[in-house]
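Memo to structure team: turn this sequence into structure tokens by end of day. - J.P.
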Amino acid sequence: MSEKLKIGITCGDLNGIGPETIIRVLEDLRMQDHANIFIYANNKALMFYRKKLNAQHFNFHTTDTIDKSNLKMINCIQCWEDTITIMPGTATPQLGKYAFRSLERASVDLAQGKLHAIITAPINKQTIHSEYFPFKGHTEYFAERFHAEPLMLLVHHDLRVATVTTHIPVGDVAKNMSAELIQKKIEILYNTLQSDFGIIRPRIAVLGLNPHAGDDGLIGHEEKTIIIPAIFIYKNQKKLVYGPFPADGFFAKQSYTKFDAILAMYHDQGLIPFKTIAQQNGVNYTAGLPVIRTSPDHGTAYDIAGKGIAKLDSMRNAIFTAIDIYRQRKYHKEIHAHPLKREQVVIGGEDEIVTE
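Reply from structure team:
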């Protein structure tokens, strides 16, 4: 039987759809067959939504630490005792503080190896922003906490879209691009496709920055001076990295189906076509970290919060993707732990590679 993993879920903004999607996904008792679930929140907040959603099959055990959890049930890790006011659909600075407490407690347990992975529910970047959370999003937070170069990777079945830049203004994209940065992102993407998705020889498509991928210099120079030189190095390494492709035609002609992953230059260039294709079923995975973090590919959705109509697929997929990545990463480490030695010998006058 496969190892039953310990999966932490942060509550995100309690006025958004995060708590609703968590509770309704976990109300399906079959989810507990796949993992031990730990929700980092407050029991009163969970009871508020349990009652509001009439989620009669959602039950949990409350504990102040994961070490005192009941593995026969869903566990609520009590991150605060304060009495708070929950108003679904409203952005309130108060709840940003508690979203951060949830995230921080889960991240500590993840760093200490008490969790195998975490799923982060959506936050409001404005209400959570503070001296304790000066980041533009979860991706930047995890990069800082785990001292790693992150790669935002959106996943939906065989469609995987990563971005060179993340949460920066469009006007700053070109200024922040360099051949070195693109190569760094390609390396992370290539490695994660192998170790986390089990693709032995990944095929990666790189998009251009400008319309028509620069049209050979007529519409911008970044392709000729930055992107093409960044890709060229992989030809000598015999890695299957191609581009730059014009973004519009690439997705319109469904060329993405021929590749294992696509590297876009900036946020909307990659995420707009991804979310259009994934139809709210996608998962945001932060590649390049020593730990595993996924999240739904949607935001707080205040307009439908608390109404019981939020789609559940993205949250459910985020949980299963985290489980799959952990197991694939573990398998990859095991099969590469003791590689056979390669030696070159001469047999019959010709060189031959043998292993021992």
